[in-house]
Amino acid sequence: MSGRIFVVARKVAWAVLNSPGALNFSTVLIRDQVVSREDVEQVVAECRQNGGNFCETLVTWGLVPRDTMRDMLRRHMSEQLEALLSLTDAQALFVPQPRTYSSQLTYGLDELISAAPKPSTPHPQVESEVMANVKQSLEETLKIEGAFAACLADSKSGMCLGSVGGNAAFNIETAAAANTEVVRAKMKAMSLLGIKDRIEDILITLGEQYHLIRPLGSKDGLFLYVALHRTSANLAMARFKLSDIEKSLQV
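RE: above sequence
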């Protein structure tokens, strides 16, 4: 994990977290249905052409009210900072750099640190037991015939709680983060259709692979994600075994 914090006149202008599953601000705006993907693409193109500020342009174009933008940006950067400041034994590099910054959307450090809710700290032994159970469950998932990568992911943040398998050509954490959009889209569709039911699993069939998504019935927002080689996988057996693994998973 790494990140960058831009400070202008003693105030934080931007904070960026670089880690598997981390969401950028434009993705958050689209996810929360504040703006459309097309709006974001147009604004990004405009900013690249004239060097404008992304957030200020959204406000200027009337796509997002300034108060809404300021509050959402504050919460987003607060989450980024909290994650960065929680790192132990982190190395920091300070780079003074003369540059202009036209946006008024800057924040005092106290606004950002106090804005993020403080998560309750689980007992170390309990946390260790949970992580061991997650790891064991994911390792069992890899024993499914044809499976070559699996992870447990959070559809709300896109972050992975654990992963196994994968390779340079297939990053399971990146794939899971991207497929959180699939889970959220299906949940939204069910809501619009008035379907009051739970998703048992979602199957994505590719030319050479199956991607199987199974939301946890015991923990809202979390889902198991497994990638299988289509030539060697038995889809019915994979769904059956993944259902059993879900029952044994404790988070």
